[in-house]
Amino acid sequence: MSSNQYWNRETSERAQYSQDKQVTQPANIICLTDKNDDANRKLYDGELPEGAKILTVASKFDDFEIKELKEANANVVFVSHPKAREPLAKLLEEIPSIKWVHSRSAGVDFISSETLANSNVYLTNAKGCFSSTLAEYTMMAISYFAKDLPRLLKQKQDKNWEKYPVEEIRGATLGVVGYGDIGRAAAKLSKAYGMKVIALRRNPDNSKDDPICDVVYKNSKESLHQLMSESDYILCAAPLTPETKNMFDAAAFSKAKPNSVFINVGRGPIVDEMALIGALKNGLIKGAALDVFAVEPLPIESELWDMPNLLASPHNMDMTKTFMHEATQFFIDENLPRFLREEPLLNQCDKAAGY
Length: 355
What we know:
Elements: E1 27-32, H1 41-45, E2 52-58, H2 66-71, E3 76-79, H3 85-94, E4 100-103, H4 114-117, E5 122-124, H5 131-146, H6 149-157, E6 173-177, H7 181-192, E7 196-201, E8 215-218, H8 221-230, E9 233-236, H9 250-254, E10 261-264, H10 273-282, E11 287-290, E12 310-312, H11 323-340
Parallel strand pairs: 1-2, 1-3, 3-4, 4-5, 6-7, 6-9, 7-8, 9-10, 10-11, 11-12
Helix pairs in contact: 5-7
Organism: Chaetoceros tenuissimus
InterPro entries: D-isomer_DH_CS, D-isomer_DH_NAD-bd, NAD(P)-bd_dom_sf
Protein name: D-isomer specific 2-hydroxyacid dehydrogenase NAD-binding domain-containing protein
C-alpha cells in the first residue's frame, strides 16, 4: 500500500478508490483519542465503511485491554490525543497486528518515537486539510506589516487623520522554508499578489517544474542563510524534526534581509525564541508573526507578549469551526476505504524523517 499521493481539500477529487472492488481486509480500529472529542463523533457513533469497526476509545495506555485487542486483531490506530507518543509506542510494542497509524493532525511530531520509526506500520496524516487557512493567515500577516495595521488602528482610536506611506506587496519576495502542502498554498496566494517565491526543501527535485516557485534551494544551513538574505517575508512551514529544531537561530537571523518579516506556522521549537527576541529588539528584522510557540500556551512571563513588532495568535490560525471534523472525515471517507481494499493510502509519512 505504498504511495506518494497527497490529499488537498481544495483540489483533490474525492473517493478516488476502487468503489466497485470488494473489501479484502478488515479495519479493526483503536482510537487513541479523547472520548469527549466532538470532532470525532462521526468516527465513534457514525456509520463507517463496510468492514470497519471501532474496538475501543481511550487516551491512556492503562485504559486499553491489550489481551482483548490482540484477540480482536486490532490493525489500525487513529490518533488525535496530544499526549499520544508513549501510549502509541506501547500499543505498537504489545500488538503486532497493527498495520496502520493515522494522525488527525498534519504534524506527526507528537507521536514520533523510535518504536514508530522502526516499525513496519504505515503512517499517514491529515496533510492537505489545513493548508488554505494557514495560507490566508500568511497573507494577512504580510499585509499587517506592509500596511502598518498597528498604526492604522492606533490612529483610528486616537481619531488622528494622518497620512503615512505604506509598502507594496507586489514585487516583494516570499521565502518559504518547508515547501510542502502549507508552504505551497501560501506561495500560490503570494503569486496572485505578484510576489516572487523562493523555497527551501529537502528534495528540490520535487519542485523543479513548479510554476509557482521561482527558485528552490536544497535544505542546508548555507541555503537557509541565503534565503534569509533574499526574502522580504520569511515563512516557516516546516515540520518539527531533530534536524529542524532551532534551525532559526541567532546565525540565521543575523543573515536576514533588513526590514524583513518572519512568519511561523510550522512548530514553535523550530525557532530559537531568544534569538528571535534579540532580532526583534535589535532591528535585525522588522517584525514577526507567530501562530506557534516553543511552549504553549505562551507563558505570561515571555518577553514576546510585550514586543510591539510581534503579531501573536494562540495556535488557532488553522482552527476553523469545522477543521478537525473535516480531518476526521478524511480518515473515514478517503483512507479507510483504501485500507479496506488494500489500495495505496493517501498522505503517507516518512517515519524516520518525521513528516
